[in-house]
Design goal:
Strand content: under 5%
Number of helices: 1
Largest sheet: none
Distance between the termini: 119 Å
Structural class: mainly alpha
Radius of gyration: 35 Å
Oligomer: single chain
Number of strands: 0
């Protein structure tokens, strides 16, 4: 009987060991998924910032053109007087 109890204990420990290994593997996979998600969010944010920067550059160019046209209009008004 003592030998039978010893087998049960070792089987129980073995099954706990497998469960612990699976828990560690599951935790590692979850952590990897979280890391990939964070990287993807960072890349999306970087793309958004670049797009905003490009839009800002375009707005600056348009403002410069508007300012130049206003200057030319003022010059034309002065010439017509």
């Amino acid at each position: 009987m003592k030998q039978n109890k010893g087998n049960r204990n070792s089987e129980g420990l073995e099954s706990v060991s497998h469960a612990a290994r699976l828990a560690v593997i599951a935790g590692a996979i979850t952590t990897l998924g979280d890391a990939l998600s964070t990287i993807a969010a960072g890349l999306a944010l970087e793309d958004e910032l670049k797009e905003n920067e490009n839009n800002s550059n375009e707005i600056d160019k348009l403002q410069k053109q508007i300012d130049e046209l206003n200057y030319e209009m003022k010059q034309l008004k002065r010439m017509s007087r």
